[in-house]
Amino acid sequence: MKDMDWQDLRFFLAVMRGGGLGPAARATGTSAPTLGRRITALEQALGQRLFSRGRQGYEPTEAGRVLLAHAEDVETAIAGIERWRAGTSTRPSVRLSAGAWMTHFLASDIGSIWTAADPWTLEFVTANARLDIGRRAADIGIRNRRPEEPWLAGRRVGVVAFCAYRRRQSGAEAALPWIGLTGEATITPSAQWLASHHSDAVAIRANDPRTLLDLVRQGVGQAILPCLVGDRATDLERGGELIEALASEQWLVTHHDERHHPAIRATAERVVRLIGRSQALFSGQEMKTGAE
Questions:
Q1: CA-to-CA distance for 229 and 282, rounded, in angstroms?
Q2: pLDDT in tens, 177-188
Q3: Which of 2, 190, 254, 279 could form a disulfide with 45 if both were Cys (CB 3.0 to 4.6 A apart)?
Q4: HSE of 258 in the Cβ direction (CA atoms, 13 Å)?
Q5: What is the per-residue pLDDT for 83?
Q6: Largest Cα–Cα distance in the chain?
Q7: What's phi and psi for 50, nearest 5 deg?
């Protein structure tokens, strides 16, 4: 058997979790052809066919499903080594995972959760899919539901409301087409709501949620945005009532074994305070001013 490369296992996990080369390419920043070659190389090294390739994507074979458990064990071990290495350095790292909009909100008020005087590095990990805190893919996660895993600690920090937004303008706003999402971003509840209610009226799509804001500001259509973004943008206005079906709880999640680490605990408490004092904005009850 040929020697295996951990990087090939990482790519294997990305394809397993994404269901195909496209989502895996976006998750890893690697081209789909390169991913395909690395998966083939891994299969050759193992002497096993790991996926059945088809029009519906990459379906794991029985060998692929067996390898998944082993690859996740390797991933956990490597994450532990990285955590140990970071803990032995002069500046440990705190990895904070959230969706695109929440990350944008936290980054826009970075002084409330981190300062240059803090003896640790803060690392933002933006992801629409949940990162595995249990396997140390992140130290702190902000999720839209209570964690079910027994090894995770969850704390409800608020509620986020959503609404349709458009550029402030006069005229036939009701005729504006919808701007939707594509690719990995379609896993978000707002993208799924738009697909089920207005799929025929979607005229333009983007695979990055932040691009929605750029397009709405150009006046080419309307899009579903969280109020914490739309209500702060003075060049936008609401295109209707709050979409009650999209209101979602926000939970701050940490690992039971790590949550008392001084850097993680301090960062988590600051995030809780920042979100807490912004609840009127998050819930759509307060129209904030100030440019985005």
A1: 9
A2: 999 998 877 888
A3: 2
A4: 27
A5: 66
A6: 68
A7: -95, -25
Q: What is the DSSP letter of 233?
A: -
Q: How do residues 54-104 score in pLDDT, each as one tens digit?
A: 776 788 999 999 998 888 888 877 777 776 666 555 568 899 999 889 999
Written out in words, the top-level CATH class of the domain with range 89-160+248-282 is alpha beta
Please list the residues that pair with 95 across neighbouring strands.
Answer: 123
Q: What is the CATH T-level fold of the domain 162-246, as seen in this structure?
A: D-Maltodextrin-Binding Protein; domain 2 (3.40.190)
Burial class (CB within 10 angstroms; exposed 0-12, middle 13-18, buried 19+) of 290? exposed
Can you tell me the distance from the alpha carbon of 48 to that of 190, in angstroms, rounded to the nearest whole number? Answer: 40
* Whether the domain at 89-160+248-282 and the domain at 162-246 fall into the same CATH topology: yes
**Residue 89 phi/psi, 5° resolution?**
-85, 170
Beta bridge partners of 242: none
Rounded to an integer, what distance in angstroms lies between the CA atom of residue 282 and that of residue 271?
14
| CATH match for 6-82 among 3.30.110.10, 1.10.1040.10, 1.20.210.10, 1.10.10.10 | 1.10.10.10
pTM beyond 0.70, yes or no: no
- pLDDT at residue 172 is higher than 60: no
Smallest Cα–Cα separation from 230: which of 290, 189, 170?
Answer: 290
Spatial CB neighbours of 1, under 8 Å, sequence gap ≥ 6: 45, 46, 47
